[in-house]
Specification:
Chemotaxis Receptor Methyltransferase Cher, domain 1; 294 residues; seven-stranded mixed β-sheet; 11 helices; Rossmann fold; alpha/beta; 10 strands
Length: 294
């Protein structure tokens, strides 16, 4: 791969998905894109780049973008966010939403479904408290491929062993040969939609809880700030934002404030609601209709 090929791919991926590649990621690009190239009859990264430069290659552009932005996921990842959900977020919203008896949750990096299904299982474990309530969970992602897997809810032995307690595996999954499929009830609790976080997502409506974990780490500072501020405008003043262990709003935006003694948990800061970044400040995108980098 030539330096100019790599620079083209860096700019291409940033514009398509917000993904920022450092100078030393050529090996990652080659390992993920060479198989994509071979499937299209292209023998090198240079040939992939040459074809991407030509108009009318949206299918290849989408494959390249999805290959570079698809990341691993596992059930109840990092544990702490789901403890916050069970012990802080749900108890608070059960009280504050008692009149409406409705909660909407957005998982903004659904990947292959482990996170939104972990949210659904956490809610299901509190079913007695949610009797008569409507709990909507929406999972979005840039990649069509991972969303299709998420909808099916079929996982390998290795995937279910990563973070999923054995009692929940036996309770909510059915074994089929060497794989495990999550129950139809849990699958039905999550709606999946393709979405690009760099594009307008206001059409999704308002959410009481937003999980946006392990996504911002792939963006530059300007994009992080803009995405966070647009998320804030889709949430009520008492809504909750959950970020990944290595992510923070500090130094990025005043639209959210940390929840004391709850690592990675934030609420909307309405005092700073007017200090927002507009959609036009985000990088211009080619039309791809999809959504995530995490």
């Amino acid at each position: 791969m030539t330096p100019s090929d790599y620079e083209f791919l860096r700019q291409f991926l940033k514009g398509r998905s917000g993904l920022v590649l450092s100078d030393d990621k050529q090996y990652l690009v080659e390992s993920r894109l060479l198989p994509i190239g071979r499937k299209s009859g292209l023998g090198s990264i240079s040939e992939v780049v040459a074809k991407l430069r030509l108009p009318g290659n949206e299918a290849l552009a989408r494959q390249v973008t999805e290959a570079m932005t698809t990341n691993e996921s596992f059930f109840f990842r990092d544990k702490t966010p789901f403890e916050h959900l069970e012990k802080t977020i749900f108890p608070d919203l059960l009280q504050s939403r008692a009149a409406q008896r409705r909660i909407r949750i957005w998982c903004a990096a659904a990947s292959t479904g482990q996170e939104p299904y972990s949210i659904a299982i956490t809610q299901k474990e509190m079913a007695a408290k949610f009797a008569g309530w409507r709990c909507e969970i929406v999972g979005t992602d840039l990649s069509v491929e991972v969303l299709e897997k998420a909808k099916v809810g079929l996982y390998s032995q290795f995937e279910v062993q990563r973070g999923l307690p054995i009692q929940m595996l036996l309770k909510y999954f059915q074994q089929t040969g060497d794989t495990w499929q999550i129950s139809s009830e849990i699958r039905a609790a999550v709606q999946y939609k393709q979405l690009n976080l760099l594009e307008d997502f206001s059409h999704l409506g308002q959410f009481d809880v937003v999980f946006c974990r392990n996504v911002l780490i792939y963006f530059d500072q300007q994009t992080k700030s803009a995405v966070l501020e647009r998320i804030a405008r889709m949430m009520p003043a008492d809504g909750y934002l959950v970020l990944g262990a290595a992510e923070t709003v500090v130094g990025l935006t005043n639209a959210f404030k940390p929840v004391p003694d709850r690592r990675g948990l934030y609420q909307v800061n309405r005092a700073a609601a007017g200090q927002t970044t507009t959609l036009s400040s985000l990088p211009r995108l080619a039309a791809i209709g999809g959504g995530r980098a995490g």
